[in-house]
Amino acid sequence: MLLLALDTATPAVTVALHDGDDVVASSSQVDARRHGELLLPAIDRVLAEAGLKVDALTGIVVGTGPGPYTGLRVGLMTADAFGLALGVPVHGLCTLDGLAYAADLEGPFVVATDARRKEVYWARYADSRTRLTDPAVDRPADIAGRVAGLPAVGAGALLYPDTFPRAHEPEYVSAAALARLAAERLAAGAELSAPRPLYLRRPDAQVPKNYKVVTPK
Questions:
Q1: Which residues form the Gcp-like domain (predicted)?
Q2: Cβ distance 75 to 9 under 8 Å?
Q3: Measured between alpha carbons, how far is 187 from 9 in angstroms, rounded to an integer?
Q4: Domain of 124: which CATH number?
């Protein structure tokens, strides 16, 4: 097994390689505006660090969000392109699940990432491997009663201490955590989800009202 894991659903552009035993190389850079510019060089870098070529890959793991439309699309399209070019399977994992796995908490807790517009993408977990609720997007004040008293991880939790007073790192997902979680589930015979994006709201870009289509005569 040689899995390439990547995620661009948060400001972190993160890539890792897992050889079936553990992560052998990883890279993470935080820049919310340069996902497309940073991702492919990061893939080249982790392959070079591991002394491997791209045709050695046996599978791709990609974070499916939730996340902003543009950033999330960069990772998913890149994963699909590699999968098609190499003829290897592409697996999807919820980005929040990767954060929960990295947090390694035993009791109930919350994962919350920054959804912008003064909202968070969030879900509740029973432990680092078990999600209790579907991912959702809400204003922190609107979910305060549902997360009261629970530890929380993620940039969204750190941004809103009034709602998440017990927030701590990790702030962003790491591809290393996604790779380890995927390898663990695959080794157990579990089927991972398809690489489909978790878009929980419409993109910021919208077609203007009263838009007129102009076609040549």
A1: 32-145
A2: yes
A3: 25
A4: 3.30.420.40
Count Cα neighbours of 157 within 13 Å in the Cβ-side half-sphere: 27
**Which residue range(s) make up the domain with 177?**
3-95+172-188
Q: Where are the alpha helices (DSSP H) in 116-193?
A: 140-147, 155-159, 175-187
Strands 59-63 and 90-93 come out as parallel
The helix (H) or strand (E) run that includes residue 103 is: helix 95-103
Indicate left, alpha or beta for 192 from its phi (over 0: left) and psi (-120 to 50: alpha): beta
Over the chain, what is the mean pLDDT? 93
Residues 20 and 74 in one domain: yes
Rounded Cα distance, 104 and 214, in Å: 55
Residues 30-59: tens digit of each pLDDT: 999 999 999 999 999 999 999 999 999 999
If asked whether residues 80 and 183 sit together in one domain, one would say yes
Q: What is the pTM of this model?
A: 0.91
Q: Are residues 58 and 160 in the same domain?
A: no
